[in-house]
Amino acid sequence: MVRVLAVADEIVEQLWTDQVHAHDVDLIVAAGDLPFDYLEHLANALDKPLVFVPGNHDVDLSGYSNVRGLWTKAGVPVRWPGPTGAVNADERVVDVAGLRIAGLGGSIRYNKGPNQWTERQQARRARRVSRLAGWRRLRDGRGVDVLLTHSPALGCGDEPDAPHRGFACLRGLVSRLQPSFMLHGHIHPHGVVRPDRALGSTRVINVVPYKVLDIPGVRDET
To answer: Which residue in 35, 78, 121, 180 could disulfide with 117, CB within 3.0 to 4.6 Å?
Structure first.
């Protein structure tokens, strides 16, 4: 089992203090819309790897490349604005701390802000993630353990207002990848318990503001 601290959208004051050390975890995952210095604090305090996807209130992180530690954008050396040392899983499939994580950040487009996508745009990004996961599985036989997203899937923990509507394409992505867990943010509890949901055999969890989870690190492919 891999013990995971999952965070999203709302700062937890106790995690800013020494009380964070009460969480003995192997990995931190962030589902978006948190200050990057908060994420850096969690990673540094716990001395554990951090995987994240951007939310619709985060800065645009597209177009950055890292070659041997040098960040560039459009071929020009730059300072990466994301959390130092973290792994951006947006539109990628990454292996960290014994888990295979597929990521897809952003929300449905509702204004001209960054990290917002139409259903068609997100579906295209989801197909890329599906292809990457398929290539990995052909190579080593391992499936995806966690689908990490900012937004929920349509009709699975989302809200009826335009900014908080989920993506229909995420339902198809879950069906193709069949991860053990889908972890998302974007939907604030506002004092109301948000129950876990299911898409097929995948457990869907709203991690706002944080959850501690035990996730099997090696998928049984038999």
So the answer is: 121
* pLDDT number for residue 215: 96
Token pair 């203090």 in the structure block, residue:
17
What are the strands of the beta sheet with 64-67, ordered from one edge? 64-67, 70-73, 76-77
Q: Tens of pLDDT along 51-107? A: 999 999 999 998 888 887 888 888 888 888 999 999 999 999 999 999 999 999 999
Partnered with residue 146 across adjacent β-strands are 101, 181
Q: How many helices (H) and strands (E) does the chain have?
A: 3, 16
The distance of Cα 178 from the centroid of its chain, to the nearest Å, equals 16
The beta strands (E) that lie in 9-80 are given as 27-30, 50-52, 64-67, 70-73, 76-77
State if pTM tops 0.85: yes
Structure tokens at 21: 């050390």
CA angle 131, 132, 133 (to 5 degrees): 90
CB 11 within 8 A of CB 17: no
Q: How is 154-191 classified by DSSP, letter by letter? A: TTBS--SSGGG--BTHHHHHHHHH--SEEEE-S---TT
List the alpha helices (DSSP H) in the chain: 36-46, 119-140, 169-177
Among the listed residues 14, 63, 55, the one whose alpha carbon sits nearest the alpha carbon of residue 36:
55
Calpha distance 106→90 (Å, rounded): 9
Partners of 103 in the β-ladder:
90, 148
pLDDT at residue 219 is higher than 60: no
